[in-house]
Amino acid sequence: MIRVEGLTKSYGSRSVLTGVTFDAAPHAVTGFLGPNGSGKSTSLRVIVGLAEADRGSATVLGRRFRDLPDPRRVGILLDSGAFHPGRTARETLRLSARLMSIRAQRAEECLEVVGLSEAAGKRVGQFSLGMRQRLGLAHALLGDPEVLILDEPANGLDPQGVRWLRTLLSGLADRGGTVLLSSHALSEVERIADRVVVLRGGEVVASGAGAEVTGGTWCRVSTEDDQALARALSSAGLAYRMQPHHGLVVAAVPPLVGTVARDAGLVVHELCLSPQLSLEDVVVGTAPASASESSLTKEATNARL
Ligand SMILES: Nc1ncnc2c1ncn2[C@@H]1O[C@H](COP(=O)(O)OP(=O)(O)OP(=O)(O)O)[C@@H](O)[C@H]1O
């Protein structure tokens, strides 16, 4: 379990985190999402004791990270570019294993897990970004941890690598582990994470299972006359946003939107649930007024259903 409560931090006069509060629970992969500069890395650095918060607290397995009797229970990958470029992958892992009093054979096992056995004798300086990420993951796995804290682990991985990462992380979560990973790549996180925490401008703007975060009832719709549909949705008290090229995103389930379109006499061209789009909207802050922002919308939705 990772518990973060009220983290607030400034660099000089610049506020970077404001009251950041969330949990990452065992048996789950929690995605920590947000645009560049929203404070994800700073939060992770505070959690593992590499940065100090001005206020608030962060605990891992019930204690501050630095107070853990056995920090090997927590695997961390914050910067895969930090490995010495002149060492081989095997040397890098064996050195860390020795520092952490972990048997040397574990380095070989972790190289195998991340698919780097063949490249184990190669210098890290010759590695691609994706290979460095794999090495970083191997490093995080050395202590056979119960908790993984990963900053942008999918960075540089090809689609096959992302699939492999998903299998690796969900396997750890299935065995009772806690995984917290940051990313600004929404599609990856949506596929990997069970729950998401969305940070924007140093504040948590949403958290929960994907469907909870997005209201679970967002859909994308386009009709023969989207302006006419917009007017009909407004009359029905439903929140919507016009999309740049065509269509709208609406805070309601498809049958309700379809009914509104039919009552307005409009031919529907496209109507589908749109969880990916809505999560992206939440992260970048372009979501239409959500149900929580507009109880009228929610009531109208319920009434029509
Ligand atoms: N050591 C530092 N000194 C001053 N400002 C910092 C420092 N570290 C981070 N910041 C600032 O804090 C803000 C949040 O940065 P942070 O790296 O936590 O964001 P992020 O969400 O991880 O972004 P990214 O997705 O680009 O990695 C940024 O405006 C950044 O410039």
UniProtKB/TrEMBL annotation:
Domain ABC transporter residues, every copy: 2-226
- Taken from the record, one Pfam family name reads ABC_tran
Q: Does the keyword Lipoprotein apply?
A: no
Q: Which UniProt keywords apply?
A: ATP-binding, Nucleotide-binding, Transport
Matching SUPFAM superfamilies, A to Z? P-loop containing nucleoside triphosphate hydrolases
Question: Is this entry keyworded Ubl conjugation?
Answer: no
InterPro entries for the chain: AAA+_ATPase (IPR003593), ABC_transporter-like_ATP-bd (IPR003439), P-loop_NTPase (IPR027417)
Q: Which domain of life is it from?
A: Bacteria
Q: Name one GO molecular function term.
A: ATP binding
Family, similarity comment: Belongs to the ABC transporter superfamily.
Q: What is this protein called?
A: ATP-binding cassette domain-containing protein
Q: What is the originating organism of this protein?
A: Intrasporangium calvum
